[in-house]
Amino acid sequence: MTAHWLERTRFQGGVAECYDYSSVGPDPLRALVEDLGLRTRPISGHTVVLDGCHLRSDHDIRLHYGSGTLEAIAAFRRRAASLLPLEVWRSWDDDGRHPWARRTCEELLDEVADPTARRYLEVAVHSDLATEPRLTSGLNGLKNFVMDVPGYVRGLLLATILAASGLARVARRRDGCSPPAAP
After folding, report:
1. Which residues of the chain, if any, have pLDDT below 70?
2. How many CA atoms lie within 13 Å of 150's alpha carbon, on the beta-carbon side?
3. SS3 content of the chain, % helix, strand, coil (to 5)
4. Ramachandran region of residue 24, left (φ > 0), alpha (ψ -120 to 50) or beta?
5. Pairing of strands 48-50, 53-55
6. Which run of H or of E encompasses 27?
7. Mean pLDDT of the chain
8. Distances (CA, A) of 28 to 32, 33, 91, 134
9. Beta strands 48-50 and 40-43: pairing type?
10. Domain ranges of the chain
11. Under CATH, what is the fold of the domain 47-152?
């Protein structure tokens, strides 16, 4: 949705998702959101739809695909977490030094022997990658795989209507203009 502010200025309305990194160190985006007085709400999206099955938990994976598939998923996540510990996760640059930097994310998934576990992991990470696993580095994939490991990050939902009004308050202070009307 596009809204207008001051006849000439357009802004996009909708919803924005960002991640809360404050549990692992300074989070400048979170600080800005708080400085603007914007409200957020925690979100999580652990449901993966595979073969028409809505998998919301380990129980669902075990029920539909068995303990072997669940263990293959857990083993992959443990390996990912060991290769990118929380202490360095956020700061590790894709500079080619990490063992997974010169590989594609698809190559990493190909190492998962259980084909259902491999498909589950690919579907689960797809929205975070925003591309196909063959088109991104293994390190970028790794950073996204560990986001499903407890303790790494927390998702936040920012309602843009709230964001637009918060930005308008800041702008009004600077230029004396009125905020846009709510859509």
Report:
1. 1-17, 90-95, 153-183
2. 1
3. 50, 15, 35
4. alpha
5. antiparallel
6. none
7. 76
8. 6, 9, 14, 31
9. unpaired
10. 47-152
11. Guanine Nucleotide Dissociation Inhibitor; domain 1 (1.10.405)
Token pair of 168, please?
A: 């308008």
Query: How do residues 11-45 score in pLDDT, each as one tens digit?
Result: 555 566 677 777 777 778 778 878 877 777 777 77
Are the beta carbons of 165 and 179 closer than 8 angstroms? yes
- Edge-to-edge strands, sheet with 40-43: 15-20, 154-159, 40-43
Tokens found for residue 30 = 């979170």
pTM for the full model? Answer: 0.69
Taking the C-alpha atoms of residue 146 and residue 160, their distance in angstroms, rounded to an integer, is 27
